[in-house]
Amino acid sequence: MSHRSILAVVFWMTGALLSFSTTAVAVRALSGTFSVFEILSIRNGTAVVFLLLLAAFRPVLRPGLMSGRIGLHLVRNVVHFAGTAAWAFSLTILPLATVFALEFTTPAWVALLAIPFLRERLTQGRLVAVILGFVGVLVILRPGAETAQPASLLVLGVALAFALVAIVTKRLTATESTFSIIFLMNLMQLPMNLIGAGWGFWQRLEVSQALPLLGLCAGGLLSHFCLTNAYRHGDASMVVPLDFLRIPLIAFVGWRLYGEPLDPYVFVGSACIIAGILYSLRRETKLS
Q1: What string of DSSP letters covers the chain?
Q2: Read out DSSP for 85-151?
Q3: How far is CA 90 from CA 17, 27, 54, in A?
Q4: pLDDT tens across 24-80, in order?
Q5: For 170-190, what is each residue's pLDDT tens digit?
Q6: What is the pTM of this model?
Q7: 107-132 confidence digits (pLDDT tens)
């Protein structure tokens, strides 16, 4: 990789890390006034308006407003809706670092699900990633320990949902643009969230909430935009390790803003998960 590509990856991943963390903090800040469905309704609604305005000024994006694979989009977005709602709810009841660490079991789930759905082989590297991933989960959850929280199982469900979304998204990218996938995601999930939202919830919006609302809306879009551009400029073997920096970053944010303890088990378990995925990536690179 050239120095320019490396700098581009670092730039975009810095944006992704800050955006993901900003979204998590915004959800936590708004959870005292709005339910999870109301928070996600705000996020989806503003994203739809913004993307429509973007398409109005950039005609090249307009074909992405429609799709010939609506059924597959619907499957993706129903699963993503459930996963995102559970993820947002988990942010309100679990330490931020725990949520992010358990979320990183998603690559292990993808490796398993890719076998039946994408007909991919379970190579040695992927098998090691799966095993170390679940070892990391056991370290974080510590079954039987007093500090273990049943709600942590919810985050494992979130990771599985996001893995399913990744599988379906891979199928969609063969024919659909990134703009189309993101637009239809927000368009389809908006009514889903509105069903669970209270009537007239927008009347509870206040000027004092401007900062977390901005963080929610901007972070929600920028996180995916930055992450996509990072993968566009660099190899996955470089991008993924940088993405793992979300764990210590969000642990610091949780400690600094909310007084959450820096649980060493979260870092040890995260190290197991990261080691497995890095080993898998190295093996895949050698085989390619």
Answers
A1: --HHHHHHHHHHHHHHHHHHHHHHHHHHHHTTTS-HHHHHHHHHHHHHHHHHHHHHH-GGGGGGG--S-HHHHHHHHHHHHHHHHHHHHHHHHS-HHHHHHHHTTHHHHHHHHHHHHH-----HHHHHHHHHHHHHHHHHH-TT-TT--TTHHHHHHHHHHHHHHHHHHHHHTTT--HHHHHHHHHHHHHHHHHHHSPTTGGGG--GGGHHHHHHHHHHHHHHHHHHHHHHHHS-HHHHHHHHTTHHHHHHHHHHHHH-----HHHHHHHHHHHHHHHHHHHHHHHH-
A2: HHHHHHHHHS-HHHHHHHHTTHHHHHHHHHHHHH-----HHHHHHHHHHHHHHHHHH-TT-TT--TT
A3: 19, 10, 32
A4: 899 999 998 999 899 999 999 999 999 999 999 999 999 989 988 999 999 999 999
A5: 778 778 888 898 899 999 999
A6: 0.76
A7: 677 777 877 876 767 778 778 877 88
Q: Which residue do the tokens 């305005």 mark?
A: 53
